[in-house]
Amino acid sequence: RSPICRIGNVEHNEQSFPLLIIHRKENTDSGGAGKYRGGNSASVAFIPHGTTHITQDTESSGAAIPTAPGLAGGYPANTNYYLFKRNTDVLQQFARRRMPADISEVQGEDVLLQLRELDIHQGAGYGDPLERDPEAVRKDVYLEDISLRAAREIFCVALVGEGEDLRVDAATTAALRHAALVERLGQEPRPYAGPRLRVVRSITEYLDLVERDGAHWLTCSRCGQPLGPARENYKLHCYRIDRPIQAASTLIGDPQRFIDDAVQFRQFCCPGCGRLIENEVCRAQDPVLHDIELKVG
Predict the structure, then answer these.
(1) Of 101 and 180, the one with more pLDDT
(2) CB distance 268 to 74 below 8 Å
(3) CB 3.0–4.6 Å: which of 28, 57, 171, 220 could bond 225 by disulfide?
(4) More confident residue, 121 or 284
C-alpha cells in the first residue's frame, strides 16, 4: 500500500466485480522528458465477465492538459485518458491462447468518451531533454520506458540495433542535438562570449544569480548569457517558442476534445546557447508566468 492509494489485488477485484483484467502495466512514454526523466504511470485493461452489461463511472483530472508541468526545462507528463472498444475479438484471441499486451492489439470499434476528469498521474521531467545521458536513453528504450520515437524526436538520441545489441550512434546523436538547438533558435547557437560574472547563487538548473555593475542579474548557467535584472521576469529575455501541447509527449491528444481554449507548450531558451531554461503549459491567451520573484538588494 502506498501513502495515498491502494492498488487492488487482481484476483480479489475479479472475485468482487464482474470483470476480467487483461493487463496492468507501465505506460511507455507517459513520464515527462528531461535531463532526468519523470516516472511512468500505470494502465489497466479489463472486459466485462460473467455479466451481460457493466456500468462504469469515472471521475478524474488532467484529460485536456497535463497536471504535472515539469521543472527547469523538463517536459510535462502525459495527459490522462481512457480508451474503450466495443465488439472486439478479445475472446477469440483467448481461444487461440493469446493474451493481448495492449489495447492496440485488439480489433474492435473505438469509442471516444468526452471525459473531463481523470485521476491517474505521471511524473514530470526535470531539465533539458537534450542533456539526458544518451546511454540512459538507450537503457530507457531497452526497458520500454520510452519509445524509439521519443528517443529520437524528444531526446534527440540515435539508436541502432535491437534487444541486447541496442547501442547509441554517438555521431548521429551529436548531429541531432546540434540540429535541435539550431531549430530552437532559428540560427546557429552563439554562446555568450562576454566575461563570466561572479555567481552569487544558483537559482535553478539553468539560472544563476550574479552581480553586474553593482546590481543583481540572472544569467544562463551554461554560457553566462545575461537574462535581465533579477527583479524582472527572466523569460522576457529568453528566446520563446510556442508549440502545440502534443509536442511535449507522444501520447498527448488534442485538448480541444475536452476544452474550447487552445493550449500552448511554451519553451523559453537561452538566446545564446539555446539551452532550454523553462517550459509552460498554458492557454494561448495567458500572459507569461512570472514564476521566480527574487527579493534582492
Answers:
(1) 180
(2) no
(3) 220
(4) 284
Domain boundaries, the chain: 10-111
Which residues does 113 contact at the CB level (< 8 Å), separation at least 6? 82, 84
For the chain, give the percent of residues with pLDDT over 90.
55
Residue type at position 230 = A
- Specify the residue for cell string 551554461: 222
For residues 274 and 181, the answer to whether their CB atoms sit within 8 Å is: yes
Contact 229, 216 (CB under 8 A): yes
Q: Can you tell me whether residue 234 is helix, strand or coil?
A: helix
Match 502506498 to its residue by C-alpha cell.
2
CA 109 – CA 277 distance, rounded (Å) = 43
Answer yes or no: are the C-beta atoms of 217 and 199 closer than 8 Å.
no
pLDDT at 117: 29
pLDDT 10s digits, 227-275: 999 999 999 999 999 999 999 988 888 888 788 888 999 999 999 999 9
Please state the separation of Cα 226 from the chain's center in Å: 28
The answer for residues whose C-beta is within 8 angstroms of residue 178's C-beta and 6 or more apart is: none
| Rounded distance between C-alpha atoms, residue 114 and residue 176, angstroms | 38
| Mean pLDDT along residues 80-94 | 82
